[in-house]
Amino acid sequence: MDLLDDDAAPGNTPEYTVSELSGAVKRTIEGEFGFVRVRGEVGRVSRPRSGHIYLDLKDDNAVISGVIWKGVSQRLQSQPEEGMEVIATGKLTTFPGQSKYQIVIDDIRPAGMGALMAMLEKRKAQLQAEGLFDPARKKPLPFLPEIIGVVTSPSGAVIRDILHRLRDRFPRKVLVWPVAVQGQACAPEVARAIEGFNSMTPGGALPRPDLIIVARGGGSVEDLWGFNEEIVARAAAASAIPLISAVGHETDTTLIDFVSDYRAPTPTGAAERAVPVRLDLLSWVAQQGSRMTNAMGQRLQTRGQRLRDLSRALPRPDSLLDGPRQRLDVLGDRLPGALTRLVDRQRLCLAKQAGSLRPATLARALTHERTRLDDRAARLAPALERLLQTRREALARRGDRLTPRPILREIRAGTDRLATLSRRLDEAQRARLDALSKRLDSLDRLRETLGYRETLRRGYAVVRGDGQVVTTRAAAEAASGLEIEFADGTLKLGGTAPKRSEKPKPPEQGSLF
Fold first, then answer.
1. Within the chain, which residue ranges are assigned CATH 3.40.50.2300?
2. Best label site of 40, 59, 197, 497, fewest CB within 10 Å?
3. Which ranges constitute the DSSP H helices of 40-185?
4. Looking at domain 10-113, does it have CATH number 2.60.120.380?
5. Nearest to 227 by CA among 316, 336, 379, 124
6. What are the OB-fold nucleic acid binding domain coordinates in residue numbering (predicted)?
7. pLDDT along the chain (513 residues), means of 10
């Protein structure tokens, strides 16, 4: 089929609809490339919910879109991943909906690792050997951070998604450090942002955040490569503030994900992990309070029922005393006979002891004790003399050390302290009197301001008739004379106004005009 015939006249050139032309192109491509094998590096991979796999095959100069249908993807021995060098087998076709051609892949096998992925794996192995991926060094995330630092582009949708999610769950203060999220400036700016947040002073004018989120939307390996740089990974590992990485979508993986304290699948997921849901917390607290109240009520009810059950098994108080009362009666009946027998035994023992006593024995015992007493009396006087001499010497030694100087120093110190306290008391009393005087003056000015004389100065007057404040026309007509008080004096109208005291009675409400 010759679609473009330069020799044909314009009027004889056939016309095609868009669908006819797309179908012709599709048949041509599928006829010429019904079976092909393509070697290239896997670019961006997409796995929608339908189960199909959409990917890009690329080399240094070109990119071909590819699709693996759901049935084929389930039979593959190895799933394609971004950065893999593969050999794909399939056929070329077109997708008229987007005016592009693509390869429908029937089989795909690894052909080697791409240059970027090889570099990434080497860097990953190095950092892992240094222990930067060790789970033991990861810090726990705060349950409810006061301030959250976000490292991302200020103009993208990521920051809006994070702020919106935080506002819905639990509003927190957010500090945004703007950075480039792709290109050559990405890695150094992200590293400086992490170090800058860590260098802030807690509680300062610009407070240090309790949690850092490094976020970026999805993209290809080249777009996300800044987050695979070693400078970014080391800055994240050295951060003293807990750090959440939220770079790319759930299928995207960068080096910062391995060294961060928590890896979120998306920026929205990072916001969800950063703070709990406030309403859920309130509901949980209310639920726990209700459970505690119910548990306490049930426990009291169970213990009360247990106590009532045990009380029914206890004997009556009177029955508890029956046995002891009976034993007391029995022992009381046996007591007189027991006392008589005891007296008899003691009398017999006394008679035996009295029979063994002789005057000569007593005389020998008295002589022996008198000898011991004389011996000790003879030794007592020298011992008392030695003790008295020892005490005199100890008293003399202590008396030599006693001087009035420490007492005088203590008296002087006490005198100075008393003078200081007296001076402070006088100053405090004067300050209190000054404060009370100022308060009294202020209250007096307030009284003058709120008094009715201030109202008179604004053009009002007080009307009195027969010594009473007049508030109605009928009262004014019934009065024998009227007296009108202005701010600068009093005017009498008719009759004889009664004398008033120097301080007139304040007018009632409604008497000013």
1. 119-280
2. 59
3. 70-73, 115-129, 157-169
4. no
5. 124
6. 16-109
7. 48 77 81 84 87 89 89 76 82 81 84 64 88 91 93 90 91 92 88 94 87 90 85 93 90 89 92 90 91 93 90 78 83 88 88 75 83 86 89 83 80 92 92 91 84 78 84 83 84 62 46 41
